């Protein structure tokens, strides 16, 4: 990089009050200097970023004393359920299968997290929850995609399967390990051409006042992933939207890697969204109980939104539905499983990138002190990390163009978030949920499965319980923990 360019960047950071990032510049090697300049140049306007951080701090403080918003469940025009409604479920499914079979559907997977809470530094998608087959989350999802492709190919009377584009968003630490994992496992039977890996962005960390950028070393800033809301910018920066448009994609399904029961490219959800001409839709499950710590899909001041459980009172948490008094009034738990119409993304994606708010997280952040030339490991929170939330764009969609589909938790949602030391959402509960679902499919197909026996059904064999008629009458007594493959 030329001397003039370096001086320009130094001046930009000096005007933003960030001269300290260059305090050790002259003592760095030429390679380290280049690294620092390249990293700093990625922040187009550091002064604007500092201002955004301080605005986010002020907004967070203001929210603590803000007047309560009007929160209601979504209206019936934006809400439907397929629980105990197989006819409606099948109708939606047929619409979705037709769209998938015609090549109109793509899938976006958010897989930037590591299995840190699980005691692993590998990408969470590589994690083995302890199934008899020892399949990773990535393998389960790749194979379910294959099962769906075969099903949709049959819909068109094709012998070969179709290929659903699968876009996998990683983070800086998970990008290469994820690519290596897929390569080593031959993409789990998928075509490499249908899988695209791309990175989400990062944001620098700040001191507690949001005034100073924190250094990782003399040649780098402290950086962290920009949150699940960074998906939108990543779709633009990595030209993923352009690729979708070139493939004539019309419908996009987005989900998180940690849900072992996820129905990837779910034709029911796709069909529901198409049938009602929604621009954006989301799946929900019923809360386990009134006080489950989970975000809720609601109407907030007349706009679709996600609120944290802490934003509503105990009285509202426990209030019953006036029409279905056996159910909670506010029961629609957010599982980060969304549908986007491609026209919505085409029209709004770049605007969202520039207008989405930042949220602050106060953290203990290890940093390099340019004055003492030492790395500091704090014992108390000393800094702020910024992130964006994917659902912050929901309120930009008219309520009549927003849909919410309630699905059965036992069939579609068992996340892997904690170690087995926790009571829920751990490897043991994920394994149990996955095997319980396969066992339920077998029973429904006429198999004889005694109480207490749990079977793992090959994820390539069945997407949602189909193709198991050959096991009708099969006795699985004494076969607890069996892996049932083709």
TrEMBL record:
EC number: 2.7.7.23
Transmembrane segments: none
Keywords attached to this entry: Nucleotidyltransferase, Transferase
Catalyzed reactions per annotation: N-acetyl-alpha-D-glucosamine 1-phosphate + UTP + H(+) = UDP-N-acetyl-alpha-D-glucosamine + diphosphate
Any GO MF annotation of the entry: UDP-N-acetylglucosamine diphosphorylase activity
One GO BP annotation of this record: UDP-N-acetylglucosamine biosynthetic process
Descriptive protein name: UDP-N-acetylglucosamine diphosphorylase
Pfam assignment, any one: UDPGP
UniProt superkingdom: Eukaryota
Assigned protein family: Belongs to the UDPGP type 1 family.
Record-linked InterPro entries: Nucleotide-diphossugar_trans, UDP-sugar_pyrophosphorylase, UDPGP_fam
Organism: Hanseniaspora osmophila
Pathway linked to the protein: Nucleotide-sugar biosynthesis; UDP-N-acetyl-alpha-D-glucosamine biosynthesis; UDP-N-acetyl-alpha-D-glucosamine from N-acetyl-alpha-D-glucosamine 1-phosphate: step 1/1
């Amino acid at each position: 990089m030329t001397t003039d360019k370096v001086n320009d960047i130094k001046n930009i950071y000096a005007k933003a009050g960030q001269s300290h990032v260059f305090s050790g510049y002259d003592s760095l090697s030429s390679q380290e200097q280049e690294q620092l300049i390249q990293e700093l140049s990625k922040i187009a306007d550091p002064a604007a970023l500092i201002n955004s951080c301080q605005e986010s701090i002020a907004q967070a403080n203001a929210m603590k004393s803000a007047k309560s918003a009007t929160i209601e469940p979504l209206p019936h025009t934006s809400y439907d359920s397929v629980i105990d409604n197989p006819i409606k479920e099948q109708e939606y499914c047929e619409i979705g299968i037709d769209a998938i079979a015609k090549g109109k559907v793509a899938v976006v997977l958010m897989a930037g997290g590591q299995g840190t809470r699980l005691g692993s530094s590998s990408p969470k998608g590589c994690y083995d929850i302890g199934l008899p087959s020892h399949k990773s989350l990535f393998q389960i999802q790749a194979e379910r995609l294959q099962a769906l492709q075969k099903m949709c190919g049959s819909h068109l009377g094709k012998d070969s399967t179709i290929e659903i584009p699968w876009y996998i968003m990683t983070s800086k630490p998970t990008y290469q390990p994820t690519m290596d994992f897929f390569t080593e496992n031959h993409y789990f039977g998928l075509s490499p051409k249908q899988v695209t890996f791309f990175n989400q962005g990062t944001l620098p960390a700040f001191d507690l006042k949001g005034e100073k950028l924190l250094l990782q070393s003399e040649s780098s800033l402290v950086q962290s992933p920009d949150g699940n809301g960074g998906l939108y910018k990543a779709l633009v920066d990595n030209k993923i939207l352009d690729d979708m448009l070139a493939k004539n994609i019309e419908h996009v399904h987005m989900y998180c890697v940690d849900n072992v029961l996820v129905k990837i490219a779910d034709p029911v959800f796709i069909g529901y969204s198409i049938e009602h001409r929604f621009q954006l839709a989301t799946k929900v499950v019923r809360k386990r109980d009134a006080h489950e710590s989970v975000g809720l899909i609601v109407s907030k001041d007349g706009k679709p939104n996600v609120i944290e459980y802490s934003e509503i009172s105990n009285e509202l948490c426990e209030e019953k539905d006036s029409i279905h008094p056996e159910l909670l009034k506010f029961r629609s738990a957010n599982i980060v499983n969304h549908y986007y119409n491609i026209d919505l993304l085409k029209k709004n994606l770049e605007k969202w990138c520039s207008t989405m708010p930042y949220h602050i997280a106060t953290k203990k952040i290890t940093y390099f002190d340019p004055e003492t030339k030492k790395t500091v490991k704090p014992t108390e929170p000393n800094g702020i990390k910024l992130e964006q939330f994917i659902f912050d764009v929901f309120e930009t969609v008219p309520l009549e163009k927003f849909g919410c589909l309630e699905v059965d938790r036992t069939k579609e949602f068992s996340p892997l978030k904690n170690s087995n030391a926790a009571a829920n959402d751990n490897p043991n509960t994920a394994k149990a949920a996955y095997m319980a679902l396969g066992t339920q499919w077998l029973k429904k197909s006429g198999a004889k499965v005694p109480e207490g026996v749990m079977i793992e059904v090959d994820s390539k064999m069945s997407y949602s319980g189909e193709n198991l008629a050959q096991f009708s009458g099969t006795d699985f007594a004494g076969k607890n923990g069996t892996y049932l493959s083709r």
